[in-house]
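Appendix C reproduces, verbatim, an entry submitted by the partner laboratory led by Prof. M.T., so that reviewers can inspect both the input and the predicted structure.
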Amino acid sequence: MEENFDLLVIGGGPGGYVCAIRGAQLGLKTACVESRGTLGGTCLNVGCIPSKSLLNLSELYHKAKTNFANLGIETGNVKLNLEKIMMNKNKSVQVLTKGVEFLFKKNKVTYIKGKAVIFSKNNVVVYENGKKTSYNAKNIVIATGSSSTSLPGVKIDETDIISSTGAISLKKVPSKLVIIGGGYIGLEMGSVWSRLGAEVTVIEFLDHITPGMDKEISKEFQKILTKQGIKFKLDCKVISVKKSKQGLQVDYIHNKKGTKEKIECEKVLVSVGRKPYTEGLNLSKIGVNKDEKGSIKVNEKLQTSIKNIYAIGDVIKGPMLAHKAEEEGIAVAETIAGQAGHVNYNVIPGVIYTSPEVASVGSTEEQLKEKKISYKVGKFPFLANSRAKVNNEAEGFVKILADSSTDKILGVHIIGPHCGDMIAEMALAMEFGASAEDVARTCHAHPTHTEAIKEAALAVDKRPIHF
């Protein structure tokens, strides 16, 4: 017997499972197909969640080893037990994936395990263990996420040449780790292994790290990471990675000088971006259009070229972020249910969970200059923030960009402690169309890190109190 659904979501990652739950909440008979065997997608299984566990634990270890004694906390000889760290990470992932399963049961979402193939605008066949089952759906949502990319001739084996998936499961700390790519993921994993004792070198094709980030923040970030012991080879192109006596040899060329260099290491992490994962869905045969980069084309309602088939998250254009996918999942479910689903793409925060963290929302200075928008800048350093100072985490600053004539906040960029949480205040402010003056006149509790935001807002009008 074929089962009929109002909404069938392909992919159980942050976009997919959130879309399914919201659809079910709105009264749609909903199913979610996932081939991995566990829900949560890349983010929960091998991405955001396990990496944050390792970032947290490696930071605690590093502080215990290097900082505690100076603060009057004497712990004796601090030892690293990598096996236990990995067990802790795996336990966190297991608890959270089971949590999503529970949410499916609670919201009456049908969880279908297997590989989905779309045969027509209303028919999806799921293959699992040699068995195939056909399902009919009024609406289909593609939320299959993305996969790691590599460089030509560099083959990821997840043993020596690894992607972010391999980087969260290493059995021992590599003596030397080379990271190809200076973006979010590479720098987070570089931080983890550097703190645990690896000598980390980042090779980046551009002349700066974190492409797309506000340049001033990017420079400060690199300065701080260099101080922490991470080495950078910027404006360099990797030619090859091959086996050597010491393990691996990375050959690269300096873009401007044209000089060739090499570096020996134990492991290489390839972190040069991700690509939409749409393999095996049968999209071209049924007439779902993609662009030249492999992203599924959608309209403002996130409909594909077939109106009852939608696409969200990493398979469409835009930042490959879990929270962006979630917003799109909710918007699509609400649209299908006859509501007005909407995503404000101008207010999607981005965070790098290193120590210190880096967070941003809205436009960078470079983008505003390109659009010829006149703006004012307000900056405030954590060095002058009392809470950051007493906690010995005074690196970094808050930077607010506001429209010169209207004072409307156009972008916020923070490098400093806990700014991944702090950025939410500014995302909310921007969602409501707040001015810098609105934030400056909002009472912030003392002593908190968020006072740096108030002071940066005051600095837009050249009137900070504590700096």
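The two ends are 71 Å apart (CA to CA). Additional entries are available on request from the coordinating office.
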